[in-house]
Design brief:
This protein is an alpha+beta fold. The protein has helices at about 5-10, 65-75, 115-125, 130-145, 160-170, 190-205, 215-225, 240-245, 250-255, 350-355; strands spanning about 25-35, 40-50, 55-60, 80-85, 90, 100-105, 175-180, 210-215, 225-230, 235-240, 260-270, 270-275, 280, 290-295, 315-325, 330-335, 345-350, 360-365, 375. Helix 6 links the parallel strand 7 and strand 8. The protein starts with a helix and ends with a strand.
Length: about 375
C-alpha cells in the first residue's frame, strides 16, 4: 500500500470482509445535489466506486444518470455536495483539470482528421514529442484492432470502428477514469453485443476505473462489476448484476430489471400471503398483518418440471396462451383461485417439447418460496 496516500486519505480505504483483499475507493460522490432552476435532477446522491471497477449507471430516461456522469466529469458542476477522485476533492475543478477520458453517444470525432490524428489530438495538446505521440497512437490502434485503418477518415469506417476510435482517443492520455455515455446505443444489435464484450475485456486488461451510462439493462448486466440503478434523481439500488436481478430491493428495480410477475395479495399470519383464494409461503417480514402487498416472481422461476401436488406453493393452472420466442416459450397461466391475477412463465424449448406443453393444457406449477419477493402495495 502507498504509505503517503494512506496517510493523506485514510477514509478512502474500506475494511475488507474475511477472505477479501483491501479495496481502495477511487471515486466518492458525497451528498451531491444538482438543480436546473426549480427542477432537482440529483437528490443527495452518495456513491463509492473502487479502483479498477466497471460501474454501470442504469435507469429510465430522465432518471439522472447522465447528469451524475456530467457532474463527475465537471461538465455540469453540482449545486451542492462534493466529489473526490483518488483522494482529491475535485468538486469545483473544471473538466480540463480532472483526470478522465470520455466517450459520448455521438463519438464526437473530428471529420476532417484521420483516425490517427483523432487519436493523437489529446496527446498533441500535451506537448509530447512527435515520436512519443506516434508510438502511443500505434499502440492504441493495435489495442482497438484498427491498425490498417489509421489513415482513413471517420466517414470511411463503420459505426463500430468509429466507436473504437473514440475509445482509443479517450484512453490516449492514460486517464485514471473512463466515462462512457451510452456509446453503443447507435449501433445495431449484433455489433453492440460484440463491442460490449471487447470494451469489457479491454477494461479488464487496462484496469482503468470505468463508468458506463446506459438505459439497456442487458448491457448493464453483461458488462458491470456493479450496477447503480437510478430513478427520479436518486439511487434505487447498488449491487452486482446477480444481486440486482435476484434480490431487487424495490418493486421499481424488480420491474425495470428483467421480466417480473406482479401479483396482488394480502399479508397473512406467519410467513404467508394470500393471492385470491390461494395461500403461498414466502418471506414477508416487514409488512403489517392483513396489509395489501405485491407478490413478485420472475417468469423463469415458475417451476413445472418436478412440481408435485401437495408440495410447498404448488397448484394447478391452465395454459391460456403460449408465445414462441426461439429459445423459450412465454406462457400465460390462469387459475380461478388466483382471482384477477395472471401468472406468466418462461418454459425452455427443451422442457416444452419434453413435456409436450401446449395451449389449453392443465398442469401443476410450483412457486419456490426462495424466489418470491414481497413489496408494499400502493392502494
Amino acid at each position: 500500500m502507498n504509505a503517503i496516500l494512506a496517510s493523506q486519505s485514510p477514509a478512502f480505504f474500506e475494511n475488507p470482509l474475511p477472505g477479501e483483499s483491501l479495496r481502495q475507493i477511487y471515486l466518492k460522490v458525497d451528498n451531491v445535489v444538482k438543480k436546473f432552476g426549480s427542477f432537482v435532477a440529483l437528490k443527495d446522491v452518495n456513491l463509492e466506486i473502487y479502483r479498477g471497477e466497471f460501474i454501470c449507471f442504469l435507469g429510465p430516461s430522465g432518471c439522472g444518470k447522465t447528469t451524475l456522469l456530467r457532474a463527475i466529469a465537471g461538465l455540469d458542476i453540482q449545486t451542492s455536495g462534493r466529489i473526490f477522485q483518488d483522494g482529491v476533492d475535485v468538486s469545483a475543478l473544471p473538466p480540463s483539470e480532472r483526470d478522465f477520458g470520455i466517450v459520448f453517444q455521438s463519438y464526437a470525432l473530428f471529420p476532417n482528421l484521420t483516425v490517427r490524428r483523432n487519436i493523437a489530438f489529446g496527446l498533441e495538446n500535451r506537448k509530447l514529442s512527435r515520436a512519443e505521440v506516434n508510438r502511443r497512437v500505434e499502440e492504441l490502434l493495435e489495442t482497438v484492432g484498427l491498425r490498417e485503418h489509421g489513415n482513413k477518415y471517420p466517414a470511411q469506417i463503420s459505426g463500430g470502428q468509429q466507436q473504437r476510435v473514440a475509445l482509443a482517443r479517450a484512453l490516449a492520455t492514460s486517464p485514471g477514469l473512463l466515462l462512457l455515455d451510452e456509446p453503443l446505443s447507435a449501433l445495431d444489435a449484433k455489433v453492440r453485443m460484440r463491442l460490449r464484450h471487447e470494451i469489457k475485456e479491454l477494461q479488464r486488461r487496462l484496469g482503468v476505473t470505468t463508468i458506463l451510462v446506459t438505459h439497456d439493462q442487458e448491457e448493464a448486466l453483461a458488462m458491470a462489476d456493479r450496477v447503480v440503478v437510478m430513478n427520479h434523481g436518486c439511487i434505487a439500488q447498488v449491487g452486482t448484476p446477480q444481486e440486482i436481478y435476484s434480490t431487487p430491493s424495490s418493486a421499481f428495480v424488480a420491474d425495470f430489471i428483467g421480466s417480473m410477475n406482479f401479483l396482488t395479495g394480502t399479508r397473512l399470519e406467519g410467513q404467508r400471503v394470500r393471492l385470491g383464494e390461494l395461500e403461498l409461503h414466502c418471506e414477508v417480514d416487514g409488512h403489517m398483518l392483513n396489509s395489501p402487498v405485491t407478490v413478485a416472481i420472475r417468469p423463469e422461476d415458475v417451476m413445472v418440471d418436478g412440481a408435485e401436488t401437495g408440495a410447498t406453493n404448488t397448484f394447478q393452472v391452465d395454459i391460456q396462451d403460449m408465445e414462441f420466442l426461439g429459445a423459450f416459450f412465454h406462457a400465460k397461466l390462469t387459475e380461478d383461485r388466483l382471482g384477477d391475477n395472471v401468472l406468466r412463465a418462461n418454459f425452455s424449448a427443451n422442457l416444452t417439447r419434453g413435456m409436450r406443453l401446449e395451449k389449453g393444457q392443465r398442469l401443476t406449477v410450483a412457486l419456490p418460496p426462495e424466489h418470491i419477493r414481497v413489496y408494499a402495495r400502493q392502494v
